[in-house]
C-alpha cells in the first residue's frame, strides 16, 4: 500500500491534460510502440475527433523510483461541464492531483472549479506549468498566478511540456514524493468507490473502482449499496492499456470488475461496493443520482422508423446511463421520445451516436430545461414541465420556477464590460467581481440555466474575442415570469417549435424566430405564413413567398411515382426534412430558437 499512488490530472480544457497523460505513459514504459497512438485515454471515436474526453478512464503504470517499484494509478477525468459529476467522483478516488496550467493561457474557469473540487476532497495539489515550449509562453507571470491561487512556493511549480516531454521526470518524482500513499484499512469489510463504468457489448458493464478498505476477490459475492443489488465478481483486475485479470485487488488500489451486468443503469458512479455477507457500515458519501439538465424531443425523420428508434435508444441507454427517455407524441411530428441529457454536448453526442452507430436519421427539437409549474388550484403541487406543451393553461397557472446556476467567468479586464452586458442580457445578476491580477478578472453571476442552453458559449466567445472561460453549477429553482411562445405555419400550430421564454423577451424572440424560420423554410408552390403567438395573441408574422410556376421540374418517363418516392426518401435522409401538414421543415428550423443572433 505504501508503494501505491492514486492521482488525477485536472485542467481547463485544451491546457494539455491528454497529451501529458500520454507522455507519462510513454515515460513509464506503459505502452509499447505498437500501441502508441495520440491521446490514448480518449477511446471513443467521438472523443478523439473532437479532442475532448467524455468518459473518464483509469490506467496503471509501473515505475521504479530510487530502486523501489511503485504502482501509479492515473485516473483521467472528463474536461467538460456536462460531465462534472464524473469529475468529482474521479477526484474522490485519488489522494493527489496534477493541476495543469497552460503557460500561455494561465488560470481559467475550469482550472479553478476543478481545483475547488480537489481541495474539497483533501487532495495534494501538484501545480504543473505546461506548454513551456510555446513561444507565447509566459512562465514567470503564469507561475506568479499559480502561486497566488494556491499559496504555494514558486519552486513547487513544475515546468513541463507534454509536447517535448520536458519535466515529465520531475512530475513523476513529485507524484511519489508529495502525494500520500492510500490509507485505508486492509482488515475492514470491503468498501470500494465506483468512479466510472464502461459498457462492453461482449462482456457487459465494466465497473471501475477504487478500494478504500478491505479486498475485493474474484468470485466474491458483492453488493452495490445504492442500487441494493448483489452479484458475483466474475472477474477483477487492473487496468493497463489492456485489462489484466487478478485474483484480488487490495486496499488502496484501483481496478475493474465484471459481473455480467448488461444494463449501465445498474452501475452508478459514486456508489459503494461492499461484501454481501459482511457489508461495511460506512458508505462512501457524496453519492448523487445524475440528473438530466436539458430535454429535447427526438423523432424519426421517417415515421415508420419509430420502433427502430426505440430499440436504438434502449441500446444506447444500456451503455450510457445518463441518457433518459420516454415516449411522447407531437401533433406535428407524430411519435417520438422526450429525452433528458446532461447538457448540450451530451445531446449532440447522443444524436451523433444514433446516426453513426444505429444508422438512424432523426429530428431533434428545441431543447429546454426542466421547469416546475404550480396551478392556482394546487399551489403546493409541483408539475414537472420537460416539454413546453406540458405547461398548464395560463389562466389556471399560479407560478413557474426555473433552474438557476452560479456562473463563473474569467476574462481580461478589457472585456469585463462586454461580458457583463451579455450576462445581463441573459437575465444574469452579478454577485461578485474579483481581480485575480491587474489583467484578469473573475465574475460571478446567478443566471437561469435556460440562458446557457441558448447560444451562450458562442456569444461569450465573440464578446471576449475568445479570452473568456466559463464554468457553472446549479443553485436551485427560482420563480420566473415565463410564457409559452407558439409558432404557427400556414395557420397550424407546430407544437415541436414552441418554447418557454421570459415574458420580457417573448415579443422580441417571437419576432426573431419568425424571421429565422422564413430564412430556413424552403419556398413551395404557395405562400406560407409564419406566426408567433402567446396564447391566442399573434405577436409576429412573416411569409415565405410562393415559388414562381416555371421553376417546377418536368418529369420524364419510367415509373415516376416510384422513382419520386425513392428520390424523396433519399432527400429526406440527406436533408433531414420533416413534412408537417403541407409544409416541409428542415432540421435547422427546430433549432432556430437557439441561433437567433
Ligand atoms: P486537454 O483538453 O487538456 O486534454 O488538452 P490536449 O492534451 O488535448 O491538448 C490541447 C492542445 O494543446 C493540442 O493541440 C495539443 O497538441 C497541444 N498541446 C498539449 N500539450 C502541449 C505542450 O506541452 N506544448 C505545446 N506546444 N502544445 C501542447
Ligand atoms: Mg483531453
Give your account of this protein's structure.
By secondary structure, the protein is an alpha+beta fold. The protein has 5 domains: 175 residues, P-loop containing nucleotide triphosphate hydrolases (Rossmann fold), CATH 3.40.50; 85 residues, Beta Barrel (Elongation Factor Tu (Ef-tu), domain 3), CATH 2.40.30.10; 72 residues, Elongation Factor G (Translational Gtpase), domain 3 (Alpha-Beta Plaits), CATH 3.30.70; 110 residues, Alpha-Beta Plaits (2-Layer Sandwich); 111 residues, 2-Layer Sandwich (Alpha-Beta Plaits), CATH 3.30.70.2570. Helices cover 25% and strands 34% of the residues. The chain has 14 helices and 33 strands. The strands form 7 sheets. It has an 8-stranded antiparallel beta sheet. The protein has a 6-stranded mixed beta sheet with strand order 2-3-1-4-5-6, with helices on both faces. Strands 21, 22, 23, 24, 25 and 26 form a 6-stranded antiparallel beta sheet that branches. Helix 7 crosses helix 8. The longest helix has 18 residues. The N and C termini lie far apart (57 Å). The relative contact order is 0.08. It binds guanosine-5'-diphosphate and magnesium ion. Magnesium ion (MG) binds next to helix 1.
Set out the fold topology.
Blueprint lengths: L3 E8 L5 H11 L17 H6 L7 E8 L2 E8 L8 H9 L3 E7 L6 H12 L3 E7 L8 H12 L7 E2 L8 H11 L12 E10 L3 E10 L2 E2 L3 E4 L5 E3 L2 E5 L3 E4 L1 E2 L4 E5 L13 E4 L18 E7 L5 H14 L4 E7 L3 E8 L2 H15 L3 E3 L6 E5 L7 E3 L11 E16 L3 H10 L3 E7 L4 E9 H5 L2 H8 L4 E13 L1 E8 L2 E2 L5 E4 H18 L7 E7 L2 E8 L15 H16 L1 E4 L2 E4 H4 L7
Parallel strand pairs: 1-3, 1-4, 4-5, 5-6
Antiparallel strand pairs: 2-3, 7-8, 7-16, 8-15, 9-14, 10-11, 10-16, 12-13, 12-15, 17-19, 17-20, 18-19, 21-22, 21-23, 23-25, 23-26, 24-25, 27-28, 27-29, 27-30, 30-31, 32-33
Helix pairs in contact: 7-8
The site of guanosine-5'-diphosphate has 17 residues, from helix 1.
